Amino acid sequence: MSLGGLDGVLFFPVTPFDAGGVDEVALARHVEAGLAHGPGAVFVACGTGEFAALSPAEHAAAVRVAVDVVAGAVPVVAGAGGALAAAQACVREAAGAGADGVLLLPPYLVGGPPAGLGAWVEQVLAAADLPAILYGRANARYSPALVAELAGHPLVAGYKDGIGDLDLMQRIVVALRRAGRDLLLFNGLPTAELTMPAYRGLGVHRWSSAVFAFLPELATAFATALAAGDDKRVETLIDGFYEPLVALRDRVPGYAVSLVKAGVTLRGEVDAGSVRPPLVDPAPADVAELRRLVACGLELAGG
User: Residues 135, 199, 242, 255: which is the catalytic one?
Assistant: First the structure.
């Protein structure tokens, strides 16, 4: 299966752990539960899936579980990134497990000029014949010219913005248009629904939905309203759920992942367990607030 247009809400599952590493049974149930709500793709072992905390064997296991559960129903995209050799190994593992593509997270710590970042991408992609979505964030800050150049690479399928610089994103859109090249473009900010009205104005219509992992009903309702141009409904969902969730998320660094994992457990289908250091689990008071928001989100989804 190719990546295609990746239509629909994009599902970024968490990675449950047990004493032996990845809890493959819990992960399979989590992916299966999300799949029942019709996502456009499953992005496994990515940021929400604690990519940076996974050993190579755990990464391979998570990708294999997702591929087995999805069974070709939608594309499966695996996280890959870090040091050059590690990123190449992730791409090879993902290809061997049957993934349909990779989300290319930043290289480890060190940065470089656009030419160096471009060379890193090309060398990572040379590891296997697998389409990739570039992820712009932290020290992987792709210039408009570099995005347009890499769009000509046969394996580069998309660009995901995790920086939030709308001026830069607009210039990337312009550079692609001037070069006559087309990419799948994504809003990759945490809790991306909050900023989707702004990104749609730039022509960016796809986003990564961490909320889908624990509230697929609401994430789907939001996507439906946005696609229909129902601005009033979008505003209601943002005001009633997404903005308060972002306020809660911003209390502690890493809550963009920790709250999602706690939300999965709150829904009761899977015990997602704890996050791994350096992330921390939400404080009891914050879990109580999340519980209230989940109840509010379910009510809004039904409305």
Answer: 135
Pairing state between β 21-22 and 17-18: antiparallel
Query: Mean pLDDT of successive 10-residue segments in the chain (303 residues)?
Result: 84 96 98 97 98 96 98 97 96 97 92 94 98 95 98 98 98 98 96 97 96 98 97 98 98 98 96 97 98 98 83
In one letter, which amino acid is 286? D
- The pair of three-digit structure tokens given for residue 217, joined into one six-digit string: 């009903």
Cα angle 151, 71, 207 (rounded to 5 degrees) comes to 40
pLDDT at 5: 78
Domains along the sequence of the chain with CATH:
10-215 (3.20.20.70)
Give dist(CA 144, CA 181) in Å, integer: 12
135 is catalytic: yes
Q: Which of 142, 159, 160, 255 is catalytic?
A: 160
E strands in 69-214: 76-80, 101-104, 132-136, 156-161, 184-187, 206-209
Within a 13 Å sphere around the CA of 209, how many CA atoms are in the beta-carbon half?
Answer: 31
Question: Strand, helix or coil at 80?
Answer: strand
Distances (CA, A) of 268 to 201, 204, 263, 272: 37, 34, 9, 9
Q: Rounded CA gap, 133 and 119, in Å? A: 15
Question: For the chain, where are the E strands, in sequence order?
Answer: 10-11, 17-18, 21-22, 41-44, 76-80, 101-104, 132-136, 156-161, 184-187, 206-209
Biggest CA pair distance of the chain? 52
Neighbours of 38 (CB within 10 A): 13
Strands 184-187 and 206-209, bridge-based pairing:
parallel
Whole-number pLDDT of residue 288: 98
Of 88, 78, 188, the C-alpha closest to 138 is 188
List % helix, strand, coil for the chain (3-state, nearest 5).
50, 15, 35
Question: How many Cα atoms are found within 13 Å in the side-chain-facing hemisphere of 123?
Answer: 14
CA distance 245 to 248: 5
